[in-house]
């Protein structure tokens, strides 16, 4: 194996993906393993925290060994262990953190605490040479935020959701529509056959200048609509799905446009699981003319350990290591 200056193992277990990766200091991803728990949570229409934690326990040790094998490195080659310490489901975060602490203690390697949200914020830099500052729309099942990324560890929050996240609105909307989990891809698939302007679902907090998000009213509106819905020739279920998705996308795109106008920043990054939504991607490209829009590769949009290892490498450059007794931070923020 060609000698590297540093090799960081990343461990991610904040929700329903068990992930381990090894990244070198030149951002070369030597291994990136993500085990999804999708089938385990499907019957419940969402992530069940206890099931997620138990799955992490069952698989994480195996994935750690697999990551080493795929990267063709030994324990002694590792420079540090980077692990998500929050935010996330407390049981899942605990499993990853205790595994990382055990490795750090047994192998005498430094331990690095990583903010899961910061991993998403910088994931675009795994594959793109993005200059600071840039606008970040972070949209996932648990988070919906607009931020300015000035640099590593330097963020300004412009707006956030006051209730549900966009991904949560997709998941709960799919459940109301009788679709599968995860909801985003299911609604997108059904909506392709429908008219997105057939039903005018409400879009909250759209008054001039607002950069905050709210999706609970939209979700409730869909619930009431479906209570009296019967498929007719003039309105079909695909129309409902398309219109619901259209409302979510319009909110996200309008808020991003306002953030651009307010800050003057012309580079925009979309990260998080909802960034995989093709309707969101195409609408951003159509509406935000003259703006550089960047999206991580699809495999880095959802939770992964490569972004955790990469951020760990950046923190190791400044010797930002942790003692073994540091706690988990299930409600960790990225910016005030």
Secondary structure blueprint with pairings:
Elements: E1 7-12, E2 17-24, E3 29-36, H1 38-41, H2 49-71, E4 80-86, H3 90-107, E5 111-115, H4 116-122, E6 134-139, E7 144-151, E8 154-160, H5 166-176, H6 183-191, H7 216-227, H8 237-263, E9 267-271, H9 278-287, E10 292-294, H10 298-301, H11 306-316
Parallel strand pairs: 1-4, 4-5, 6-9, 9-10
Antiparallel strand pairs: 1-2, 2-3, 6-7, 7-8
Helix pairs in contact: 2-3, 4-11, 5-6, 5-7, 5-8, 6-8, 8-9
Quick tags:
5-stranded mixed beta sheet, globular, 2 domains, 19% strand, 11 helices, Nucleotidyltransferase, domain 5, 336 residues
Structure description:
There is one protein chain. The protein has 336 residues and is of the alpha/beta class. The protein has 2 domains: 7-122 and 301-316, Nucleotidyltransferase, domain 5 (2-Layer Sandwich); 132-295, 2-Layer Sandwich (Nucleotidyltransferase, domain 5). The chain has 11 helices and 10 strands. Strands 3-2-1-4-5 form a 5-stranded mixed sheet, with helices on both faces. A 5-stranded mixed sheet has the order 8-7-6-9-10, sandwiched between helices. The radius of gyration is 20 Å and the shape is globular.
Strand sequence of the main sheet, in spatial order? 3-2-1-4-5
Give the tally of β-strands: 10
> Are there runs of 5+ residues with pLDDT below 50, and where?
none
Identify the CATH homologous superfamily of the largest domain: ATPase, nucleotide binding domain
List SSEs in N-to-C order. EEEHHEHEHEEEHHHHEHEHH
Number of domains: 2
Q: Termini, distance in Å? A: 43 Å
**What is the approximate shape?**
globular
Indicate the percent of residues in helices: 40-55%
Class from secondary-structure proportions: alpha/beta
> How many separate helices?
11
Task: Using the coordinates shown, work out and report the CATH topology of the largest domain.
Answer: Nucleotidyltransferase, domain 5
Main sheet overview: 5 strands, mixed
Mean pLDDT across residues: 94
Name the beta content range: 15-25%
CATH class of the largest domain: Alpha Beta
């Amino acid at each position: 194996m060609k000698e590297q200056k540093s090799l960081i193992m990343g461990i991610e277990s904040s929700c329903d993906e068990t992930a381990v990766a090894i990244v070198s200091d030149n951002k070369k991803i030597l291994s990136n393993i993500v085990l999804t728990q999708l089938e385990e949570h499907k019957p419940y229409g969402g992530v069940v925290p206890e099931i997620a934690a138990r799955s992490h326990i069952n698989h994480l040790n195996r994935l750690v060994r697999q990551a080493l094998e795929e990267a063709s490195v030994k324990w002694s080659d590792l420079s540090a262990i980077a692990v998500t310490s929050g935010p996330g489901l407390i049981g899942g975060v605990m499993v990853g953190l205790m595994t990382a602490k055990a490795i750090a203690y047994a192998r005498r390697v430094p331990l690095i605490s990583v903010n899961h949200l910061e991993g998403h914020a910088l994931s675009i830099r795994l594959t793109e040479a993005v200059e600071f500052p840039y606008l970040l729309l972070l949209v996932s099942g648990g988070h919906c935020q607009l931020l300015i990324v000035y640099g590593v560890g330097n963020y300004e929050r412009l707006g956030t959701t006051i209730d549900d996240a966009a991904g949560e609105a997709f998941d709960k909307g799919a459940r109301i529509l009788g679709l599968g989990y995860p909801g985003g891809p299911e609604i997108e698939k059904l909506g392709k056959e429908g008219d997105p302007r057939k039903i005018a679902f409400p879009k909250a907090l759209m008054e001039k200048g607002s950069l905050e998000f709210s999706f609970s009213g939209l979700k409730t509106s869909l619930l009431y609509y479906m209570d009296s819905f019967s498929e007719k020739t003039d309105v079909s279920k695909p129309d409902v799905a398309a219109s619901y998705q259209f409302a979510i996308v319009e909110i996200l795109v309008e808020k991003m446009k306002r953030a651009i106008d307010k800050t003057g920043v012309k580079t925009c990054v979309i990260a998080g699981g909802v960034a995989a939504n093709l309707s969101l991607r195409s609408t951003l490209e159509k509406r935000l003319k003259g703006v550089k829009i960047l999206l991580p590769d699809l495999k880095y949009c959802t939770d992964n350990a490569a972004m955790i290892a990469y951020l760990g490498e950046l923190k190791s450059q400044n010797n930002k290591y942790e003692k073994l007794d540091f706690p988990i931070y299930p409600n960790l923020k990225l910016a005030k």
